[in-house]
């Protein structure tokens, strides 16, 4: 943080207008003062290590150099994580910050080639391995004696995992599975770290034994020699190439040709293959989806993290940037004084809070359901799966749109790599398609909703579905309150579910197969799941703020943010509200006026709110968003770091341009 005499005067003024204690909000978002102090210590431990700094800005490195630099840093990072573990300062917070949080993106801004080792390889071993398999593999993985990845998605199949083509055929004579990629579309495609970093993988393949296919199952497969790192016989492996973002993640491809692994390399906590080839199925097929749910739970928090970075950059820049005139012959105002700019920024600030509260709820429920699974209780798993699907879809889509809005709010300078907004967008928009493509996830949630709507059983016992018992037939006159907005969203969601089910049934009665009727109703079904998810987010946001024990000054601002998120959500869904509730056009005008009142009320606290996210300059890595607001000098410094500016005349002038200019065309 810079000294006050070096801070842009506009930001000094903004911080003086803040009506609440920003540190109180920082502690609240972190989960307490101790958590904030732990985070500060963790950031200092990593960010002040000179070995973790790049000598050349990443954007000027080649694709190959970026990967090599990422591996160098990743090895140092996890050595330091192990050091914290050995000192008794370990815990999941370290891994979450390094792998998906602010700290990880500060050190490895274009992705970490070892991420899936911790995010999916180890969790899959823990969740789907027997005690003996865990004893054999987890210590090796935890100590990084091996580096693993999770190879599920194929070139021809992603979210539809039942369609995977990779085969694992059991040979009882040798007690081995034989893995093959029968087609080019069967090649594994996308797993992070698979290209060159990992030497092991959990491979998801179709299990064949006794001539029968038993569906997809996970297998531990060695890919490379532990000493030479060369691919093993029958393994065709490499990296898939450049992408919009995450170019250090080392996404790879993987094909098999008669690769043999021991029978005991099939993860058998749930399903088993006996030495003679007998298949023993698990009590429930749902037990195998734990790893995917875990990642989706984490992604909701990641969406909030990326959006926090973007709104911090755009809000501080908007306070510093002066442009145009509101009134003729007056000085150029801060662009944050334009209401259109506030409309771009403030709802996205509120969205950060909405997603964080939903992520906290989801994480707590995930841990509870995981504990229940250990005792064989599966009742709450379908609701968790449906909620994780819809929240992952909404949070990733809204965060990606929000980051892009923030980039546009910064004008041309937001297009500069130095703003860190293009890179942040590249990271967050990837979330819309990995770990389940969003439309498919919304349809999975819709399937759960339709099933529960048809059964009408136990709705009151399911926290996310309680409203469906009464919302459809309730009527409530319009009032200017968040509670009314929640009611209106609930009624709209229930009406959409009811209508979608009617349309499916009508199509079936006309002779369509149920599957065709479902497909032909799928646009409605996606909208139904989306609004159900938004009911949950607004209601969770409301319940969280209602129960907060904070100072009156902070509570007032948090209520304003809650109201802004709710009103903005309602206005985006005006068409549906007019269709399914008693709202009128005059009520919509009231909502619009309320939105504008909230923008004005939040204006004095805008910079204070993003300051409360407490994202250090090193983590932001943005010329536009630094705490001191010295935007133009930072942009010049970034420009001067370009290798093209290292010499006054580039050699291409003498090689090509000068002969061209002298060619007397």
Strand content: 5-15%
CATH topology assignment of one domain: Butyryl-CoA Dehydrogenase, subunit A, domain 2
The CATH H-level superfamily of one domain is Butyryl-CoA Dehydrogenase, subunit A, domain 2
The CATH architecture category of one domain equals: Beta Barrel
| Secondary structure: helix percent | 40-55%
Helical run tally: 23
**Number of β-strand runs:** 11
Question: What does the largest sheet look like?
Answer: 6 strands, mixed
Please state the overall shape, judged from the principal axes of the Cα atoms: globular
Task: Estimate the mean pLDDT confidence.
Answer: 91
- Class of one domain in CATH? Mainly Beta
Can you describe this structure?
This protein has 665 residues and is an alpha+beta fold. The chain has a domain at 145-282: Butyryl-CoA Dehydrogenase, subunit A, domain 2 (Beta Barrel). Helix content is 54%, strand content 8%. The protein contains 23 helices and 11 strands. The strands form 3 sheets. Strands 1, 2, 3, 5, 6 and 9 form a 6-stranded mixed β-sheet that branches. The chain has a 3-stranded antiparallel β-sheet with strand order 4-8-7, with no helix packed on it. A two-stranded antiparallel ribbon has the order 10-11. Strand 10 (272-273) and strand 11 (279-280) form a beta hairpin. Helix 9 runs parallel beside helix 11 (381-409) and helix 16 runs antiparallel to helix 17 (552-572). The protein is globular, with a radius of gyration of 27 Å. It starts with 8 loop residues before the first helix and ends with a helix.
């Amino acid at each position: 943080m810079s000294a006050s005499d070096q801070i842009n005067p506009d930001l000094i003024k903004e911080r003086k207008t803040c009506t609440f204690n920003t540190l109180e909000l920082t502690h609240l978002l972190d989960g307490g003062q101790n958590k904030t102090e732990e985070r500060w210590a963790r950031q200092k431990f990593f960010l002040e290590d000179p070995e973790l700094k790049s000598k050349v800005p990443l954007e000027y490195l080649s694709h190959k150099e970026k990967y090599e630099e990422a591996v160098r840093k990743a090895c140092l990072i996890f050595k330091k994580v192990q050091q914290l573990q050995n000192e008794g300062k370990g815990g999941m917070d370290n891994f979450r910050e390094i792998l998906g949080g602010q700290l990880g993106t500060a050190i490895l801004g274009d992705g970490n080639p070892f991420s899936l080792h911790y995010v999916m390889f180890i969790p899959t071993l823990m969740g789907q391995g027997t005690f003996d398999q865990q004893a054999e593999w987890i210590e090796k993985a935890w100590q990084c004696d091996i580096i693993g990845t999770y190879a599920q998605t194929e070139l021809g199949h992603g979210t539809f995992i039942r369609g995977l083509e990779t085969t694992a055929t059991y040979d009882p004579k040798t007690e081995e599975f034989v893995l093959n990629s029968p087609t080019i579309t069967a090649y594994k495609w996308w797993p992070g770290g698979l290209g060159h970093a990992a030497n092991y993988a959990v491979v998801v393949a179709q299990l064949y034994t006794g001539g029968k296919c038993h569906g997809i199952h996970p297998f531990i497969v060695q890919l490379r020699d532990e000493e030479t790192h060369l691919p093993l016989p029958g393994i065709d492996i490499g990296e898939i190439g450049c992408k919009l973002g995450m170019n250090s993640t080392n996404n790879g491809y993987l094909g098999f040709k008669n690769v043999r692994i021991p029978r005991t390399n099939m993860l058998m906590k749930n399903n088993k293959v006996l030495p003679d080839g007998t298949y023993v199925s698990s009590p429930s097929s749902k037990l195998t989806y734990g790893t995917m749910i875990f990642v989706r739970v984490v992604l909701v928090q990641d969406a909030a993290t990326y959006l926090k970075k973007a709104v911090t950059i755009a809000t501080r820049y908007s306070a510093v940037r002066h442009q145009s005139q509101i009134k003729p012959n007056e000085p150029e105002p801060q662009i944050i004084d334009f209401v259109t700019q506030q409309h771009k920024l403030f709802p996205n600030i509120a969205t950060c809070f909405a997603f964080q509260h939903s992520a906290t709820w989801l994480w707590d429920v995930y841990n509870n359901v995981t504990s229940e699974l250990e005792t064989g209780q599966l009742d709450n798993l379908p609701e968790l799966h449906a909620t994780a699907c819809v929240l992952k879809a909404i949070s990733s889509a809204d965060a990606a749109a929000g980051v892009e809005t923030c980039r546009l709010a910064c004008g041309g300078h937001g297009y500069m790599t130095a703003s860190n907004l293009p890179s942040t967008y590249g990271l967050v928009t990837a979330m819309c398609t990995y770990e389940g493509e969003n439309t498919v996830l919304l349809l999975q949630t819709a399937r759960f909703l339709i099933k529960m709507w048809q059964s009408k059983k136990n709705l009151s016992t399911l926290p996310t579905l309680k409203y469906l018992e009464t919302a459809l037939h309730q009527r409530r006159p319009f009032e200017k309150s968040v509670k009314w907005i929640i009611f209106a969203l609930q009624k709209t969601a229930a009406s959409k579910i009811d209508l979608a089910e009617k349309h499916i049934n009508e199509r079936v009665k006309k002779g369509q197969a149920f599957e065709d009727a479902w497909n032909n109703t799928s646009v409605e079904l996606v909208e139904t799941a989306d609004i159900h998810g938004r009911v949950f987010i607004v209601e969770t946001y409301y319940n969280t703020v209602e129960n907060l024990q904070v100072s009156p000054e902070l509570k007032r601002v948090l209520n304003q943010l809650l109201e802004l998120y709710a009103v903005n959500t309602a206005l985006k869904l005006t068409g549906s509200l007019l269709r399914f509730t008693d709202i009128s056009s005059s009520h919509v005008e009231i909502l619009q006026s309320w939105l504008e009142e909230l923008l004005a009320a939040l204006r004095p606290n805008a910079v204070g709110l993003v300051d409360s996210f407490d994202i250090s300059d090193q983590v932001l890595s943005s010329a536009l968003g630094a705490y001191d607001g010295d935007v133009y000098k930072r942009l010049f410094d970034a420009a001067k770091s370009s290798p093209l500016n290292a010499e006054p005349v580039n050699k291409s002038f003498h090689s090509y341009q000068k002969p061209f200019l002298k060619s007397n065309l």
